[in-house]
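FYI - complex with zinc ion, inputs then prediction.
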Amino acid sequence: MPMAADIFDRARAASRDLEGVTRPAWSSEDQAAADILLGAAQEHGLTTRMDAIGNTYARLAGRDETAPGILSGSHLDSVARGGNFDGLAGAVAAVTALAAIRRAGMVPGCNLTAMGTRCEESVWFGIAYVGARLAVGNMDRAEFDALVRLDSGRSIADHMTDQGLAVDDIWRADGPEIKPANTKAFLELHIEQGPLLMEQDAPLGIATAVRGNLRYGDGVCYGAYQHSAATPRRLRQDTVLAVTELLQRLEALWHEIEDGVDPSAVFTIGKLFTDPANHALTKVPGECHFSLNFGSTEQRSQDRFAAAIAAMTEEIGRRRRVRFVLGDPVGSSPTPLDPGLRAGLLASAQSLAIPATEFATVGHDASIFARAGIPAAVLLVRNDDGSHNPHEKMDLGDFEQGVQVLAATMLDLAAE
Ligand SMILES: [Zn+2]
């Protein structure tokens, strides 16, 4: 697949950072990726443009150019020292699929458009999916104006203006760039960021849903620092034993949910620590910090987890004479993906005899299109060594199979 390999190589060269790539949102690096992508699309006869947000579009005109079209793509930015394929694979896959359809002389029923979005990664401005949210009209000017890039301290408008974008044109009188009235479906190819396809020895995965999450980033349990030998159990205010009891009970609840309604539920304690300035072998720990991160495809599981956290911290706090302060939770709701599109992707894979398996996925731009009322689906490509690190890797043979399934599904949808 020389076209795709060439785009990947050139984008990597334009954003190389030690062993990985760094493409900050609205930087010369993600702009280079956009230019390389659009240039390749033009060479292959596609009609290209960039909107006021900096999202890229490469279009293959359909027989009925006024009918709602099919959109496919993913993001151009990366995390710092991340991998070249996280995001870019989906943007390149869509352009490659459209070029192949055109080369084969096929004219789709409606317009097919390959999209590259900006600023999907939350590391740059503290929130994810900015380019996609702006494209579907899901961010007002006040929220936009408050965004500041975490590393530079400069506003989002400044960074976008640096790239020659006309920020004031984003909120147009005729509504957002992408809406159900002009877009029939959004398909996103993305590398898998977990180990399931490697484990199941399948090149492709079809996402059932995008997990939501419930997160407490800075939980603290307050008790009292007491003499470890002089204080009997009934008078202790031990925060470590209180927190570990909470975590074990939440883990049991996670297993129950995982064995029951939601096999894709995940639970992570990313942080757990006592205060090094005050903790000691001979002190009852008077303060313990921790985080809670529960992910699920079922809103009722998230609600159940939230209720359990509230009840358990209250009961454990009272019994163990400690106080839990969790702060306000952050997170997102689970997003179901379109059953018809999922079935279409599965049918395309089957007719091409390409093994594909179904499971839930993490947050992607597709969830923003789904929430905007546009049927959306995610096609995952096998990728060893996880993601958000320089070692992520995808076999170009697997990628090519993904492009075949994507192209076949887009054509089928355009014929409906
Ligand atoms: Zn990504």
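DSSP finds twelve helices and 19 strands in the chain. Residues 2-210+334-415 form a domain with the Aminopeptidase fold (CATH 3.40.630.10).
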